[in-house]
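#structure-requests
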Amino acid sequence: MKNLFASLFLSLIIFQHAAAQDNLAVDTIQSSIVAVKPNSEDKTHEFSYKKLIIPTAFISYGVASLSIKSLKELNFSTQYEIGEHKPDHIRLDNYTQFAPAVLVYGLNAAGVQGKHNFRNRSIIYGTSMLITSAITLPLKHIVKEERPDQSNNLSFPSGHTAIAFASAQFMYREYKDTNFWLGISGYSFAVFTGVYRMLNNKHWFGDVIGGAGFGILSTELAYWLYPQIVNLLGGKKDKSQTMIMPFYQQGNMGVGLVKNF
């Protein structure tokens, strides 16, 4: 199980690194042909099918694990191995799911600037959390997969893992152009969260992989939708202020919005 999870995580890092190198090469060629204006349009929010490859693969695996016999057997064998070792159940996964996003705000406060300012990244991250919730919560009630500990039928997909990978993808997108290795560091918290959802006997392996895919997809959609969100909120930047922030309190998750005109 660990080897499979490590391979999937490594493939994600390699793909992200290759994508970053491709973007850097294109930018270098363009800058050698024509001078880039300071206010030229940023392609950060442009849609690209390449950004959907990894989340689509993860989601496809998660969905397939619900019905394909060999993948269901892998779910059971993974949980059996975990049960054999009887690991201590800790609840750090309730907090590590948000760790990459907290790091983004902390690094910016410390002077390590990311792609966007406080207002813009708050809109993007808040949108990502809304999309993640809009996808995972209804799916849990539609699929009705029983958890490994048999506590309820809301196992697929893993919401904690979805939030963790959405947060990690957010950190990656904010720092990939300035410090690639710093950008991917958030994935370590996301992997930790996913692993501990299984160690705590709350999710199957397929739930975690599917959740990771939904989380990455949500953040990518948030970056793509950001220009439309800004237009929807309306008002000029110097006349209005908007803040969208997720919150987690006593097991309840949500998103708050404050707008000053």
